[in-house]
């Protein structure tokens, strides 16, 4: 071969014929050396087949002397051998190794590391098709040592191999750790033990190391000629892959090809004379894997041609490489990254285990961790329960396999490595190693539950003591499916998803059910009924249309009037800037005027609110509806937290004591609300005093005593009372008719006594700081001045409009002018908040501050601006443009984090790690106000953490890495820090052992996209940010043109005031007309760029996501405030939503706008969606948008702040109580009532 420059390509006789044929064809083989039996068995079709057994005689006649050097035609750059390794395409790829690489390796490894001597006896056990055989054969020959060739059977049998090695006096053994683990018998003759090919467990080193034996752990890909690094192993040292061989270069680089410092994880790269030429016939793959760094990136890296291994590693303090697994081979299960070798290492330390391997197998469409064991002697000696308990004590729950499978031996590849793809399907899931030892059902209830579990989980013979999550592989979605299936049996209609979390075994669930049936709730009943409904009378439509006309007048006045005043003054010859100044004064006067008008309208329209039950869409309802909409329009949120709000509510009829703090609260039935002195009602609390249920408007009183506390995002039902010094904490719901006794603290939805709660504000902070007259004046000025910020932001765009469209009359520039005006508005608005924040507050430090103080006033004003940013430029949120702005405000936010419409942010105290996701309407670290003091504390959220829609993260919270806080939930409380890799749901939070995870997408689609996707997304999100403002700009322009036409049409009137009276009577109608046109424009965009929404999963970095977010942004910024808002609570709202794709029946009551994927929602006749309820047709866990359908059958009802997740069915007459969460995949049976987070059956 050397004489004729032939290339060696080695084939394993055990390869299937198809693989041999492929390699021979791909490698362009012309001649093959084999034996007759193999040639016939494999049907080798190469032209020149030399069967060495048939030609043994001729071969024997050849000279045994080595060739003279002048007869060798081979050069060092010629190919020495080709080895085919596994390929990602399903076909192997040929690695081309040159002579210089192989001879260099044999020389340096033998002289510097192995030091094989002529008297050594070296075992040859690797397949010749694996490059480790190069080491065995040629290092032995180079040293003049003896090669001891073993059989395939011996290599696969640990016991037989040990005996063979001892008999043959083998001194050098090279093998994979799996084979060594199967050798229970000591081989005293071995002086050099070389391990490689897979990660080495620590216990093997402890077992095989002794003073007379060297043990080496080696590492190296075929592409870098056999072995690249090595470590001298000792029992008291952590196993690494060591350092590079002489003439080899090994680097650990980050994604930008920069050197990683010690301790920092990166990818392992190898360079030097060892590198392969490339891959046979694959220049594309060669260019991908063998990279050439340019000079700018390789100043500290020599040589600049490197092999990209795809392995992770880091340098330790000793200058050795810690191997961290494959980049593309790490197992990701239910969102967790798992190193299988760690599990295998734990199992190998258990008694009776000879070898172990862990793999992921799909069973009943569920990915599960399966452990395969080879016993040392027999199955009887394995304590499977003990092995399981060891794993549970040493490993996190998500790393504990769901089955232990016993094998006589592990399947292996020709390289000796374990062939994970050939591992058999599991047979013993949930059976073999349960602590119960497989106890079966003992009664009919257990049998029924076990049958459903088996059917859904795809597991037979489930033990009644097997844990649904820890042992059977269940997760959150499967829990909902199992419970929904069980509910089809009337015996199990009361079961809730929460039950399976609290009672995760068949036995515990059956016991809990039996106990519940023996001790039923006093109000429990088995009867079902059809819920009453309501139908709108045609006469009510007249009042609705009149009410909408007045509402449009109130809504449009602050938008249109200031700019109309400017036009009038400017046309009359006023100086441009003087006209702008007067327009600003008009704007500042409008807001107080609207507040006074709303007070007058309340007393004129309603008088005093009275407790009672009134027909939906009846006469009283229409008056109530009108006043409720008026209160929403007058922007009381910009008075929140100030004494001005107290004054306003007192004028409406609320009975307020002294020193009451009112945050940004919801309050409607004013005359029925009583709040005692020194009480604090925090941001987001709901004291509306009404509900819509069973076709009725129910109104009731709410009484809160003195020195009470109501937490953020907390709701008080009708006829509720907080007695003096009582408390109800964040994200809680106090149901109708309930009282909290004096001095007690309640929490949760539904709220219950919480004996562990104590005040977060020290009692020494009393007495309550009062608000002096000077501060009251400051609040008055601040509440007016806050409106200057949007006015100033609009001036450049408005002046551009005047210049281009009115003075130069270049109408074709309307759209560019609108886009520029919108862009300047957003930019100037953000810049103003940034400047005012740093000028007025600087960097905020944690601590307790008086609410009514100079700092409190300044903090209040900046908080109002942050709240206004969500109203004025909502489409900035959820985009890549938001994060830089929040960082400039002081927030510490890691790379690739996504933040949606988060509220109550104190930027200086907010810290979010990299690659986290904050969903819509999440409250992030709101200041807690109690007895006149506000507490500001850090809020820390780790990396790769998901916070669900409507969640509340209190100040002081620390959310661990890779964790999940569910929708409408709070973090766990207590002295024990939250652990990483955990999921929590509810208020108070409960631990979710396993959840459904979508991890089938590449990181380039979820966490680490290529740069070109950033460019596309930024372009689409630029439209998302600027298009709503552009549309508003065009509406204002066309509206002014329309009003001018109206004024001109009435110019014959002698009295100017009459002309402008006509204009103002027309402009609500005109504004309605133009906003309607804008609405239909957005509807058209929805159907053209998104089309019809369908169920499925879509990764974050996909253009569909940005297109649908564009439509959602336009819906929320154009359709909702300009059109849909005025229709809420009327029979007209469903008409509009049908145009967007929702399927809605007759007589449906809708008082929410929280819809996104409209086509996935089906609402049947007489359904009620109460105030701010949510039909959540998607979630963004794991950076994947999961979309699913929702179906509400006739007369189903969702209470205020109720949230229904996707893939859910509410049967007819189902009632979901306020602040409740229906889990995805649930199906709630007819005529039942549910409440809580997540929901449980209610009989109230």
From TrEMBL:
Keywords, sorted A to Z = Membrane, Phosphopantetheine, Phosphoprotein, Transmembrane, Transmembrane helix
Regions that span the bilayer: 542-565, 577-601, 777-801, 813-836, 1025-1047, 1059-1085, 1114-1137
Q: Which GO terms describe its cellular component?
A: carboxysome; cytoplasm
Tell me which InterPro entries the record gives: AA_adenyl_dom, ACP-like_sf, AMP-bd_C, AMP-bd_C_sf, AMP-binding_CS, AMP-dep_synth/lig_dom, ANL_N_sf, PKS_PP-bd
Q: Which domain of life is it from?
A: Bacteria
Q: Which residues form the Carrier domain?
A: 440-517
| Pfam families per UniProt | AMP-binding (PF00501), AMP-binding_C (PF13193), PP-binding (PF00550)
Give the record's GO biological process terms.
amino acid activation for nonribosomal peptide biosynthetic process; secondary metabolite biosynthetic process
Q: What GO molecular functions are on record for this protein?
A: phosphopantetheine binding; structural constituent of carboxysome shell
The name under which this protein is listed is Amino acid adenylation enzyme/thioester reductase family protein
Please give the organism: Chamaesiphon minutus (strain ATCC 27169 / PCC 6605)
